[in-house]
Task: structure prediction
Amino acid sequence: MCALNQEDLANAIREALLEATLEKASPLTEQGLADRFGVSRTPVREILTQLENDGVIERKQRRGIRLRRPSPKELVEIYDVRAVLEGYATRVAAQRATPEDIETLAATARRFAECRERGNFEGCDQANIEFHDRIIALAGNDLLERIVQRFRIIRRAFKITHGLPWDERDRTTPYPHDQLVELIRQGDVDACEAFMQAHILRAKEILLQKVLGLSAPLHGHWHAHHDRPRDTSVHHQRREETP
Result:
Protein backbone atom coordinates (compact mmCIF):
# COMPACT_ATOMS: atom_id res chain seq x y z
CA MET A 1 0.00 0.00 0.00
CA CYS A 2 1.33 3.42 -0.91
CA ALA A 3 2.54 5.35 2.17
CA LEU A 4 2.39 8.65 0.28
CA ASN A 5 -0.44 10.13 -1.71
CA GLN A 6 0.26 10.89 -5.37
CA GLU A 7 1.00 14.57 -4.81
CA ASP A 8 3.42 13.94 -1.94
CA LEU A 9 5.10 11.17 -3.90
CA ALA A 10 5.51 13.47 -6.92
CA ASN A 11 7.10 16.13 -4.70
CA ALA A 12 9.43 13.56 -3.14
CA ILE A 13 10.52 12.27 -6.55
CA ARG A 14 11.20 15.78 -7.83
CA GLU A 15 13.34 16.52 -4.78
CA ALA A 16 15.20 13.22 -5.19
CA LEU A 17 16.01 14.08 -8.81
CA LEU A 18 17.26 17.55 -7.88
CA GLU A 19 19.32 16.18 -5.00
CA ALA A 20 20.89 13.46 -7.15
CA THR A 21 21.86 16.02 -9.80
CA LEU A 22 23.24 18.47 -7.25
CA GLU A 23 25.36 15.77 -5.63
CA LYS A 24 26.40 14.36 -9.03
CA ALA A 25 25.09 10.97 -8.00
CA SER A 26 24.35 8.13 -10.38
CA PRO A 27 21.14 8.50 -12.42
CA LEU A 28 18.06 7.24 -10.59
CA THR A 29 15.96 4.30 -11.70
CA GLU A 30 12.26 3.60 -11.60
CA GLN A 31 12.74 0.58 -9.35
CA GLY A 32 15.17 2.45 -7.11
CA LEU A 33 12.66 5.24 -6.55
CA ALA A 34 9.88 2.74 -5.85
CA ASP A 35 12.07 1.00 -3.25
CA ARG A 36 13.16 4.28 -1.71
CA PHE A 37 9.62 5.50 -1.09
CA GLY A 38 8.05 2.12 -0.36
CA VAL A 39 5.62 2.08 -3.28
CA SER A 40 5.01 -0.02 -6.35
CA ARG A 41 6.52 0.94 -9.68
CA THR A 42 3.13 1.94 -11.12
CA PRO A 43 2.70 5.32 -9.37
CA VAL A 44 6.40 6.07 -9.86
CA ARG A 45 6.10 5.33 -13.58
CA GLU A 46 3.05 7.60 -13.87
CA ILE A 47 4.85 10.49 -12.19
CA LEU A 48 8.00 10.03 -14.26
CA THR A 49 5.95 9.93 -17.45
CA GLN A 50 4.35 13.25 -16.50
CA LEU A 51 7.75 14.77 -15.66
CA GLU A 52 9.08 13.57 -19.00
CA ASN A 53 6.09 15.02 -20.86
CA ASP A 54 6.64 18.30 -19.02
CA GLY A 55 10.24 18.38 -20.22
CA VAL A 56 11.71 18.06 -16.72
CA ILE A 57 13.54 14.74 -17.04
CA GLU A 58 15.06 12.50 -19.67
CA ARG A 59 15.05 8.71 -19.59
CA LYS A 60 17.44 6.60 -21.57
CA GLN A 61 17.51 2.84 -21.69
CA ARG A 62 20.11 1.37 -19.31
CA ARG A 63 21.25 4.89 -18.38
CA GLY A 64 18.61 5.75 -15.79
CA ILE A 65 16.68 8.94 -15.17
CA ARG A 66 18.19 12.38 -14.85
CA LEU A 67 17.11 16.02 -14.97
CA ARG A 68 17.01 17.48 -18.44
CA ARG A 69 19.33 20.44 -18.89
CA PRO A 70 17.07 23.43 -19.75
CA SER A 71 18.39 26.04 -22.15
CA PRO A 72 18.73 29.77 -21.35
CA LYS A 73 16.08 30.41 -24.03
CA GLU A 74 13.66 28.15 -22.20
CA LEU A 75 14.25 29.88 -18.89
CA VAL A 76 13.70 33.32 -20.42
CA GLU A 77 10.39 32.12 -21.85
CA ILE A 78 9.38 30.77 -18.44
CA TYR A 79 9.90 34.16 -16.82
CA ASP A 80 7.84 35.86 -19.53
CA VAL A 81 4.94 33.44 -19.08
CA ARG A 82 5.21 33.53 -15.29
CA ALA A 83 4.88 37.31 -15.38
CA VAL A 84 1.55 37.04 -17.20
CA LEU A 85 0.15 34.15 -15.16
CA GLU A 86 1.22 35.36 -11.74
CA GLY A 87 0.16 38.90 -12.61
CA TYR A 88 -3.33 37.49 -13.24
CA ALA A 89 -3.17 35.47 -10.01
CA THR A 90 -2.29 38.60 -8.03
CA ARG A 91 -5.20 40.49 -9.57
CA VAL A 92 -7.61 37.75 -8.46
CA ALA A 93 -5.92 37.44 -5.06
CA ALA A 94 -6.40 41.16 -4.45
CA GLN A 95 -10.13 40.70 -5.02
CA ARG A 96 -10.45 37.63 -2.79
CA ALA A 97 -7.98 38.21 0.05
CA THR A 98 -9.43 38.55 3.54
CA PRO A 99 -7.72 40.72 6.18
CA GLU A 100 -6.33 37.49 7.66
CA ASP A 101 -4.91 36.45 4.26
CA ILE A 102 -3.24 39.84 3.89
CA GLU A 103 -1.66 39.65 7.35
CA THR A 104 -0.29 36.19 6.53
CA LEU A 105 1.23 37.57 3.32
CA ALA A 106 2.69 40.50 5.24
CA ALA A 107 4.30 38.15 7.77
CA THR A 108 5.83 36.08 4.97
CA ALA A 109 7.16 39.25 3.32
CA ARG A 110 8.75 40.31 6.62
CA ARG A 111 10.36 36.90 7.06
CA PHE A 112 11.81 37.11 3.55
CA ALA A 113 13.27 40.57 4.27
CA GLU A 114 14.73 39.44 7.59
CA CYS A 115 16.38 36.39 6.01
CA ARG A 116 17.91 38.57 3.30
CA GLU A 117 19.29 41.00 5.87
CA ARG A 118 20.95 38.10 7.71
CA GLY A 119 22.31 36.62 4.49
CA ASN A 120 20.18 33.50 4.98
CA PHE A 121 19.42 32.85 1.32
CA GLU A 122 18.03 29.38 1.94
CA GLY A 123 15.49 31.02 4.22
CA CYS A 124 14.89 33.66 1.55
CA ASP A 125 14.16 30.98 -0.99
CA GLN A 126 11.66 29.23 1.29
CA ALA A 127 9.90 32.49 2.20
CA ASN A 128 9.81 33.57 -1.44
CA ILE A 129 8.23 30.31 -2.55
CA GLU A 130 5.69 30.52 0.28
CA PHE A 131 4.81 34.11 -0.64
CA HIS A 132 4.18 33.31 -4.31
CA ASP A 133 2.37 30.07 -3.43
CA ARG A 134 -0.01 31.91 -1.10
CA ILE A 135 -0.94 34.38 -3.81
CA ILE A 136 -1.50 31.59 -6.32
CA ALA A 137 -3.61 29.69 -3.78
CA LEU A 138 -5.76 32.79 -3.23
CA ALA A 139 -6.45 32.83 -6.98
CA GLY A 140 -8.05 29.39 -6.58
CA ASN A 141 -6.91 28.08 -9.97
CA ASP A 142 -5.67 24.47 -9.87
CA LEU A 143 -4.31 24.55 -13.42
CA LEU A 144 -2.28 27.64 -12.63
CA GLU A 145 -0.82 25.93 -9.56
CA ARG A 146 0.29 22.95 -11.68
CA ILE A 147 1.89 25.16 -14.32
CA VAL A 148 3.81 27.18 -11.74
CA GLN A 149 5.03 23.98 -10.07
CA ARG A 150 6.38 22.77 -13.40
CA PHE A 151 8.10 26.11 -14.01
CA ARG A 152 9.68 26.00 -10.56
CA ILE A 153 11.39 22.66 -11.03
CA ILE A 154 12.65 23.68 -14.49
CA ARG A 155 14.16 26.85 -13.00
CA ARG A 156 15.83 24.82 -10.25
CA ALA A 157 17.05 22.28 -12.79
CA PHE A 158 18.55 25.11 -14.84
CA LYS A 159 20.50 26.40 -11.87
CA ILE A 160 21.77 22.96 -10.88
CA THR A 161 22.58 21.55 -14.31
CA HIS A 162 24.34 24.75 -15.40
CA GLY A 163 26.27 24.91 -12.13
CA LEU A 164 25.23 28.49 -11.40
CA PRO A 165 25.98 29.81 -7.89
CA TRP A 166 23.33 32.50 -8.02
CA ASP A 167 20.02 33.49 -6.57
CA GLU A 168 18.13 36.46 -7.97
CA ARG A 169 16.60 37.07 -4.54
CA ASP A 170 19.92 38.03 -2.93
CA ARG A 171 19.76 41.35 -4.75
CA THR A 172 17.73 44.43 -3.96
CA THR A 173 14.65 45.00 -6.09
CA PRO A 174 12.47 48.03 -6.77
CA TYR A 175 9.48 45.66 -6.52
CA PRO A 176 9.64 44.14 -3.00
CA HIS A 177 7.06 41.84 -1.46
CA ASP A 178 5.98 44.29 1.24
CA GLN A 179 4.95 46.91 -1.31
CA LEU A 180 2.89 44.31 -3.16
CA VAL A 181 1.15 43.40 0.10
CA GLU A 182 0.16 47.06 0.57
CA LEU A 183 -1.30 47.19 -2.94
CA ILE A 184 -3.32 44.05 -2.19
CA ARG A 185 -4.47 45.65 1.06
CA GLN A 186 -5.66 48.68 -0.93
CA GLY A 187 -7.48 46.43 -3.42
CA ASP A 188 -5.93 48.13 -6.44
CA VAL A 189 -6.16 45.17 -8.82
CA ASP A 190 -4.56 46.90 -11.82
CA ALA A 191 -1.58 48.04 -9.76
CA CYS A 192 -1.26 44.59 -8.17
CA GLU A 193 -1.11 42.85 -11.53
CA ALA A 194 1.42 45.31 -12.96
CA PHE A 195 3.58 45.15 -9.83
CA MET A 196 3.80 41.34 -9.84
CA GLN A 197 4.69 41.35 -13.53
CA ALA A 198 7.46 43.88 -12.90
CA HIS A 199 8.65 41.87 -9.86
CA ILE A 200 9.11 38.71 -11.94
CA LEU A 201 10.59 40.47 -14.96
CA ARG A 202 13.14 42.12 -12.68
CA ALA A 203 14.33 38.62 -11.75
CA LYS A 204 14.56 37.79 -15.44
CA GLU A 205 16.59 40.94 -16.06
CA ILE A 206 19.07 39.96 -13.35
CA LEU A 207 19.35 36.47 -14.81
CA LEU A 208 20.18 37.82 -18.25
CA GLN A 209 22.46 40.68 -17.27
CA LYS A 210 24.25 39.33 -14.19
CA VAL A 211 24.27 35.57 -14.56
CA LEU A 212 24.43 34.97 -18.31
CA GLY A 213 26.33 38.17 -19.06
CA LEU A 214 23.75 39.42 -21.54
CA SER A 215 22.45 42.94 -21.89
CA ALA A 216 18.77 42.68 -22.71
CA PRO A 217 15.45 44.47 -22.24
CA LEU A 218 12.97 43.18 -19.69
CA HIS A 219 10.53 42.26 -22.45
CA GLY A 220 11.20 40.41 -25.65
CA HIS A 221 12.12 36.98 -26.84
CA TRP A 222 15.16 35.08 -27.95
CA HIS A 223 16.71 35.72 -31.31
CA ALA A 224 17.71 32.24 -32.48
CA HIS A 225 20.26 33.43 -35.05
CA HIS A 226 22.34 35.36 -32.55
CA ASP A 227 21.38 33.46 -29.37
CA ARG A 228 20.50 36.75 -27.71
CA PRO A 229 17.18 38.27 -26.62
CA ARG A 230 15.56 40.75 -28.96
CA ASP A 231 12.72 43.08 -27.98
CA THR A 232 9.77 42.94 -30.33
CA SER A 233 7.05 44.44 -28.14
CA VAL A 234 5.49 47.67 -29.33
CA HIS A 235 4.53 48.32 -25.69
CA HIS A 236 8.06 47.93 -24.34
CA GLN A 237 8.66 51.52 -23.30
CA ARG A 238 5.28 51.92 -21.63
CA ARG A 239 5.53 48.68 -19.70
CA GLU A 240 9.06 49.32 -18.53
CA GLU A 241 7.79 52.43 -16.75
CA THR A 242 5.06 50.51 -14.91
CA PRO A 243 5.64 50.76 -11.15
